[in-house]
Amino acid sequence: MSSTPIRHARKLPCHAPNQATQKKIRDLSRRSITSNAIQPTRLQKILAASGVGSRRDIEKYILRGEISVNQKVAQLGQKITPNDRVFVNQKFVRLAWPHNLPRIIVYHKPEGEIVSRKDPEGRISVFDRLPKIKSSCWISIGRLDLNSSGLLIFTTDGELANHFAHPRFEIEREYAVRILGSLTETQKNELYTGITLKTGVAHVTNIQETVNNEEASNQWYRITLKEGKNREVRELFAALGLTVSRLIRIRFGSILLPSRLKRGQYYELNAIEVANVIKWLKLSSEGLRQSSE
Q1: Do both 79 and 193 map to the same domain?
Q2: Which residues are part of the catalytic machinery?
Q3: Using N-to-C axis directions, what is the helix angle for 158-165 and 271-292, rounded to 10°?
Q4: Residue whose C-alpha is closest to residue 168's, from 248, 228, 222
Q5: pLDDT value for 192
Q6: Does 68 share its domain with 196?
C-alpha cells in the first residue's frame, strides 16, 4: 500500500453567474420532481426508505395481508408511484420519495489513476480524489483505463448512471487519440465497417484528423463510438497494427470535457446543467425507442 498522502481533486474556479441565473438555479434546486418524472418503484424498497421496517419485514407484512395499495391488498414485487396511496395495518403511510435533482460532477482524470474503489496494488483511485459527500456516494459513469485520461462523470443517481453507460442506449463517446504513424483510407474504412475483437465486432461512427503534419511520427485523431468496452479504442488500433500513445476522452453524450478543466480538477454541474442533462437523456431514449419500433 502506498504511503504517499492522497490529495483531493481541486474544484474548478468559476465566475459567479448573474443574478437571474442564480435565481433559476435556486428554484431548480428547491423544486420537487413531479410525480410523472419518478419511475415506479418496488413497494418494499420505498416502504423501507420511509422507515416502515426492513425489506424482509415488509415482505412478511405483505404476505400477511397487512399492506394495501389503493384499497387493494398489496402483492410481493408490486411497484408503486407517488400517485398511489399505501396503508400499513389500515394506517396511511407518508412515503419518502426523492425530491431533489441528482448531483453530477465531471472530473479530468490524469493518467495513472484507477477507476475502482479497491485495488490490491494500492494504486491511487479516482474515488480517493473526489469530494466527500454525506448520505450518498459517487457512482462512476463508465470507466477509463489506467493509462488513459480525460472526462469522467460521477453522479449520485444510479438510474442516471445506468442510462448513460448501458450499451442499449448507444450514448456516444468521443476520444482524442494519438497514434504512432497515421491511418490509411483502407484502415479508416475498416474502423467504420467493424473489426472483430475478443469482445465482439466493434466500429467507430466518426473519424476526424486533427493534426496533419506529414513529417510528424505521431498523428492525432478524434474518434467517436457508441460503446465503451474496456480498452476498446486501443484494441481497435492494435488490430490495425497501430499503437495508441495517448488517449483522452473529451465527450460522453451531451457532456464535454471543459477546456478550462485541468488534469486533477473537477467541476460540479449546477441545477440548470443537471436538468438539461436529464432532459437530453429523456429525449435520446425516446429517439431510441422510436427508431426501434
Answers
A1: no
A2: 145
A3: 50
A4: 228
A5: 96
A6: no
